[in-house]
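Technical appendix A lists one of the benchmark inputs used to test multi-chain prediction within the project. The record comprises two sequence entries:
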Amino acid sequence: MRRRDFIKSAAIGLGGLLIPADKSDASMWERFFQKYFREMTSEEKKTVAKKLEKDYQDKTGVAINVRTTDSQPGVKFGYGLDLSRCIGCRRCIYACVTENNLSRKPQVQYITVLEFKNGEKWVSDLEESRKYYNHELVPEPGHFYMPVQCQQCANPPCVKVCPTKATWREPDGIVAIDYDWCIGCRYCMAACPYGARKFNWAEPTVPPDQFNPNTHYLGNRPKAKGHVEKCTFCIQRTRENPGKYPACVEICPVGARKFGNLLDPESEVSRCIETKRVFRLKEELNTNPSFFYFFS
Amino acid sequence: MIEFIKDLLRHIIKGNKLYYTWLSVLVLVITAGAIAYFRQLDEGLIVTNMRDQVSWGFYISNFTFFVGVAAAAVMLVIPSYIYHFKPIKEIVLFGEMIAVMAVIMCILLVVVDMGKPFHAWHIMMTPNFPSSLLVWDVIVLNGYLIINMSAVTYVLYRAAHGKEYKMSIMWPIVLLSIPWAFSIHTVTAFLYNGLSSRPFWNASIVAPRFIASALCSGPALMIIVFQIARKVSEVDISNEAIQKIAELIAYAMGLNLFLYAAEIFKEFYSHSIHLAPMDYLFFGLEKGGEHHNVLVPFTWIALFCNVTAFILFLMPKMRHKFTTMNLACVMILVGVYIEKGMGLIVPGFIPDTLGEIYDYLPSATELIVTAGIWAVGALIYTLMIKTAIPIYKGELSLIPKEQRRKIPAH
């Protein structure tokens, strides 16, 4: 660390019992005392979103649009994953990174694809999983793949333990995080049985020309260091009207990923539950995920 | 009052070369810790070795250990107030000051672990109570700090007036502090215990073991601190009191080892897939052709220390000899520090929930920041006894100077 940086950070630290960053204008104070998302009126949400858009423009030079679309009545999102189709290509991981403006350095990824050898024990503690497989071609013969991401539990352990209520379950079933309300204690990461929650250990970086400008307050808006984030079923896509599939569903080359409204019996995901024998990950923990695995 | 503060400052700056060396070392370590922490604030927690796989590490390990130390005072409060055991009664104050020190250290250790410490006030705005055990922990730790600080302040305030404290005022504080001390343990144990995602923590033996091991480490630290205090200052701490504490440690360690054995038996005999964290501690785990065993030496050192210390404490001959007793105390501190620190927190994350094994050892930043917090604790304690001893001796008093001679020294 250079000396100037050191002096700067020392000054931030010393003067910093209240000052959160190295800018000291009025908007910074407003950001610092920004309210909890769930306690904002829809007017306040709009004002804060506008402010964020300006902030992001100043910071990244990209015009980023922050929406605060509410969940729609009569919708409970559900996800289906066909394990017999997945080839372990990891395209979903990178589509997700691009769509959700995830940090490239250090890398943050919402999806983990696990590789298992045929016949090995795998379901419960996943202890024989390989995460860092690196083959010329996938699928590797004699192996199968299981992608894991936030399971959007109906009984989410992360929500139960969060000390500030910075994470909660929305009416449409998405477990959301107010990034600005999270204090970075990481209790939710200890509580999550699916390794779905990711922490920003350093300031996230996204090349300005690769920013996805269509964002949601609870979704893919630019992140900061020191808070937790995770998959939101692409809230910025799925909540719009007309809605779009999550990026991972759209990119999957083999159609292993299904998505839809659990309350609509004709939706793709409802049909999968109806016609396939589905299971959910770590069912013994009673988390009741909205994420269903099956073999077609 | 101004006279009192002047006198107090005079007492604090009065000291020999050793005292000044001690203070300089502490200030030096605190400065190093602060510098390392500012760097962490600037660059993020990436400067630690914690990652998504092992998301809590050295800070939370130390936090857990010091929650144990904080309850030490209660070990003294029970026999002194309830059974009126005189030799211990006189040193309760020093035990309570250890509690104050330890709780302050706990709070600092949690703060340095947070990604956004400046936003900690959000807990007060929207506390997730009673659902989140972390909110419970904030309440019980701060409450414990207030209780012990009031007890210490009250006793010293009375002493500064040349009077004994009134039992009518002390009783409610004592009656509150006993269950409260157990609560800081139980709540901190439940914090880990309640997570079904982590089989290593999700065992009902965790809370009882917390209490048992805390009743070893806290008093062991007290025995050592008391001996140093009576050597470098003119405070009176009787051998009888120290022997009584040593006896209590022997029982507590016996209980701790029994509970530990019960846990080891259950895990190794049933040999389910949830043995992995315990296996990692004692023998290391094999995965993908790699052997992961960074905690193995520490686990065995801890076990060796705890068992040896227990044997030493069990034999009255060894316990009564100061050299062997001190050796046993140091061993207990080392043993419990490993067992209730890294040995409890890290294996909770190994293997992680998706089966990955990430070998965690603290980074230089984590070590330096933690050392800084230890030094803050030591400095606080030094200044506290530097204030308390002259008050007890009647050298520092709130009574006006001209009236002082009429009242017999405390």
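Chain B touches chain A through 60 residues (CB under 8 Å). The domain at 7-403 of chain B is CATH 1.20.1630.10 (Formate dehydrogenase/DMSO reductase fold). Comparable benchmark entries are summarised in Table A2.
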